[in-house]
Amino acid sequence: MARVMIVDDHPIVRDGLKTYLSLQADLDVVGEAADAAEALAQARASRPDLVLLDLRLASGSGLAVLPALRALRPPPRVVVLSSFLDATAVHEAMRLGASGYLLKHVGPGTLVDRMRAALRGEIVLDTAAVEALARPSASPLASLSAREREVLACIVDGMTNKQAARALGITEKTVKTHVSHLLAKLGVRDRTQAAVLATAERDADP
What we know:
Layout: E1 2-7, H1 11-21, E2 27-33, H2 36-46, E3 50-53, E4 56-57, E5 60-61, H3 66-70, E6 77-82, H4 87-95, E7 100-103, H5 108-119, E8 124-125, H6 127-134, H7 146-156, H8 161-168, H9 172-186, H10 191-204
Parallel strand pairs: 1-2, 1-3, 3-6, 6-7, 7-8
Antiparallel strand pairs: 4-5
């Protein structure tokens, strides 16, 4: 029996998925989580074979936890189950090791079929996700808000959170929140990687 974990910050979604998956003789829901930190803790404890991962979590982007999930041994298959489609997010999810990208309007029967396919090692994609992958990926920097870009510029300049807060006229706590969000959106682990990415893109501009 395949062990499944559900990561979604909406209890009604988690409950609905658990109810339907409980009817499947070959699938067992062994854990659920509402945010990235809880997801990683639950995954370490329950060792799922497959994780259904929403990208928009209350604590930030699900992309932030995807590499850590895939780094577990043995690594679970991770299928993104999202209510929105963004070409950059699709590219980034697949780059980080996702086994698929499905939209929440998928029928329950189709979802289970796709989960079983992912467990067999197949890549499972919504038709719209396939079309998104066929298009060139936009720069991940394009997903940043204006304020996140300002904070990233401060990081590139070597500023601490406290220095960035003074420069931008906001609180240090707000800076920390923006840093967390932009790291998740860029799919990088730390400030150094974010600075390297931003610098590389800037230098690549004609």
